Amino acid sequence: MQYSWPGGYCPPIPAWRSTALLIIHSQYGYRDPSWGDGASNPDYEKNVSSLIAKFRSYAETTPEDELPLIIHAQLKPIWANSPLYPGKTGPYGANGEEKEGVDFLECSVPLVNEPSSPSEPASSSEPTASSDSVASPEPTCTGTQASELAASPPPGNSSRSPSNEVIITCRGPSVFSNTPLESLLKKRNIRTLLIAGIPTDHAVSTTVRSSYDLAMDGRWGGPGYIEDTFKWLHTDGAGVYGQKKHVFGGNQEVSQEDLVDYAVDMARIILIGDGTRCFGKGGVDAEVVHRVHVESLNAFAEVTNTATVIRQLYQDERWKTWTFL
Prior knowledge:
This protein is of the alpha/beta class. It has a single domain, classed as 3-Layer(aba) Sandwich (Rossmann fold). The chain has helices spanning about 45-55, 145-150, 180-185, 200-215, 285-295, 305-310; strands spanning about 15, 20-25, 70-75, 90, 100, 165-170, 190-195, 225, 230-235, 240-245, 260-275, 300-305, 315. Strands 2, 3, 6, 7, 8, 9, 10, 11 and 12 form a 9-stranded mixed sheet that branches. The radius of gyration is 20 Å and the shape is globular. InterPro entries: Isochorismatase-like_dom, Isochorismatase-like_hydrls, Isochorismatase-like_sf. Belongs to the isochorismatase family. Keywords: Hydrolase. This is Isochorismatase-like domain-containing protein.
């Protein structure tokens, strides 16, 4: 099954509690030259900043329990030679300032890390007053603890993180391995997962593929794959469905009776290609590595860009779009 829609079209994306933006390993340590010969996508920081700002903007008009979720995945590797190993520093700031590699890049500092003074983001390795919430990097919660805490708004304290912005700690390239991510997606009933971060060919690729497998297996976001014979794949903006018979969509009304005979009912996975970054290796240019891996992930996710995601996010009932393969 080719997951992406024809012509690169991205159907509208609901900006509600069923949608999550996952930012993977957006940390200073990935500015270390040891990762490879140059970095791809010079607009990475600008694009990720725009995505996070768009998601945060809904807090002005949306009830807290209806807000889309922002998940920051922070890598704390076990290997002491990694530039992201906690305590390691380097000239990773925007102007070459000394920064701890494990900390979040300027473009993606979680709200939980912002101190009372707006002049300088707090270090993610130095817990703030909100360190007891799920969004704090320390201590790491178990899957059950994290998902239950994330589902409940924190007490009314402006120094705490909002309930729709959380941090999960990773030890390796899979954001699902030994983290609360899967249980968090299920607890929050996430049906649409948008993915961005670093590196495109490691953690991002691994997470996209794992997301697809879990969604197809019915582990989160719906029953997943049900049977082989379906004729039409479509989306209503949130989930992805395989219909056993042909139904018409677009500008035409589609009755609920036409949309119950599913062979596939799974979560929608969206890779934001220009919201990722990777590095040159083996003599291959970083931009080539980037393009090859993003294109390969077309089989596991919708692949689109930052501008399209921001344009297609919506919060009303104007869109009931049925896009077909």
